[in-house]
Amino acid sequence: MRRSVLLIEDEESIRELVSDYFTQSSWQVIEAANGEEALELFKTRPVDLVIVDLMIPKVSGWNVCKQVRSQSTVPIIILTAKSEEENKLLGFELGADDYVTKPFSPRVLVARAETLMKRVEHTVGQEEPLISFGNTVIYERKRLVKINGQPIELSYKEYDVLLHLLKHKNFPLTREHLLNQVWGVDYFGDPRVVDTHIKNLRKKLEADARYIRTVFRIGYKFEVES
């Protein structure tokens, strides 16, 4: 099945170039030049991926990210300038799954999108519980997390962090380890992104956040109570 991407970029030349590369890779591209247009399109056009420049007119990339994530778990890639480390962290807090810094290679952007989608599509299938803890149950193949029987919305990276912690329960994991395993060895951004995702997970897991422990000067671990 042909994948579709909502590309939100106000610079026409960049938008056309990126669109050409995605089209050549057999993607259907839906373009938006501002946040207002993007949100209207998102309501009416089902997409598999959203790529959004943070600095867009009318409705900011921040708000687009926030509103998309409030309605859907669709993967989101943010585009941002190299100097905007805090912007990247805030983007992750709002539910983005990956980011690409400007200037960037359209070929690299397509490759990052393909990698993200393969990870997402690989887990689609039969609903099967991986593990339960406290009031939480995780269904690995569907990437579904429920608390007290009610599903909660995690971004793809938030889910991957939680799953990796679970699979290494009672073992302290460094931030560098989590970066390499969840974001990939080619990630060269701010390691604080791990802290941001842990913060989001703790908030969403509510009382069950107690299982994710901070290990001083090391990182984090998922600790099973004896």
Automatic annotation (TrEMBL):
<dbReference type="InterPro" id="IPR036388">
    <property type="entry name" value="WH-like_DNA-bd_sf"/>
</dbReference>
<feature type="DNA-binding region" description="OmpR/PhoB-type">
    <location>
        <begin position="128"/>
        <end position="224"/>
    </location>
</feature>
<dbReference type="Pfam" id="PF00486">
    <property type="entry name" value="Trans_reg_C"/>
</dbReference>
<dbReference type="InterPro" id="IPR011006">
    <property type="entry name" value="CheY-like_superfamily"/>
</dbReference>
<dbReference type="GO" id="GO:0003677">
    <property type="term" value="F:DNA binding"/>
</dbReference>
<dbReference type="InterPro" id="IPR001789">
    <property type="entry name" value="Sig_transdc_resp-reg_receiver"/>
</dbReference>
<feature type="domain" description="Response regulatory">
    <location>
        <begin position="4"/>
        <end position="117"/>
    </location>
</feature>
<protein>
    <submittedName>
        <fullName>DNA-binding response OmpR family regulator</fullName>
    </submittedName>
</protein>
<dbReference type="InterPro" id="IPR039420">
    <property type="entry name" value="WalR-like"/>
</dbReference>
<keyword id="KW-0805">Transcription regulation</keyword>
<keyword id="KW-0804">Transcription</keyword>
<feature type="domain" description="OmpR/PhoB-type">
    <location>
        <begin position="128"/>
        <end position="224"/>
    </location>
</feature>
<dbReference type="InterPro" id="IPR016032">
    <property type="entry name" value="Sig_transdc_resp-reg_C-effctor"/>
</dbReference>
<keyword id="KW-0902">Two-component regulatory system</keyword>
<keyword id="KW-0238">DNA-binding</keyword>
<feature type="modified residue" description="4-aspartylphosphate">
    <location>
        <position position="53"/>
    </location>
</feature>
<dbReference type="Pfam" id="PF00072">
    <property type="entry name" value="Response_reg"/>
</dbReference>
<keyword id="KW-0597">Phosphoprotein</keyword>
<dbReference type="InterPro" id="IPR001867">
    <property type="entry name" value="OmpR/PhoB-type_DNA-bd"/>
</dbReference>
